[in-house]
């Protein structure tokens, strides 16, 4: 069973509810705390649309640490 929480975020002229959800989901995904699908659901987007949002924020969708990526490249 997945538990949920309610979070109150003050909305401003620069941040609306949609943007707040996307920003939170992107950060939780970047930190590896939730999966790509969970992040997309949290943001209220499809996985493909969420991937686009990650790209706009320059957040890797692979979540591979740089050192692991270097190791993979060296092995090729």
Note the main attributes of this structure:
76 residues; single chain; mainly alpha
Task: Please describe what this structure looks like.
The protein is 55% helix and 0% strand. The chain is an all-alpha fold and 76 residues long. It has one domain. It is elongated, with a radius of gyration of 15 Å.
List the helices and strands and how they pair.
Elements (H helix, E strand, L loop, with lengths): L16 H14 L5 H8 L3 H10 L9 H10 L1
Helix pairs in contact: 1-2, 2-3
Distance between termini? 41 Å
Q: Provide the structure class.
A: mainly alpha
Percent of residues in helices comes to: 55-70%
Q: Number of helix segments?
A: 4
Largest sheet: none
Counting structural domains, the number is: 1
Based on CA atoms alone, the radius of gyration comes out at 15 Å
- Estimate what percentage of residues fall within beta strands: under 5%
Query: How would you sum up the global shape?
Result: elongated
The string of secondary-structure elements, in order, is HHHH
Number of strands: 0
Q: Provide mean pLDDT, rounded.
A: 88
Low-confidence stretches: none
Quick description:
The protein has 76 residues and is an all-alpha fold.
């Amino acid at each position: 069973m997945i538990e949920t929480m309610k979070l109150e975020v003050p909305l401003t002229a620069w941040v609306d509810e949609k943007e707040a959800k996307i920003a939170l989901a992107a950060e939780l995904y970047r930190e590896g705390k939730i999966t790509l699908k969970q992040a997309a659901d949290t943001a209220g987007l499809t996985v493909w649309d969420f991937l686009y949002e990650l790209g706009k924020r320059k957040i890797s969708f692979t979540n591979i640490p740089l050192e692991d990526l270097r190791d993979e490249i060296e092995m090729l």
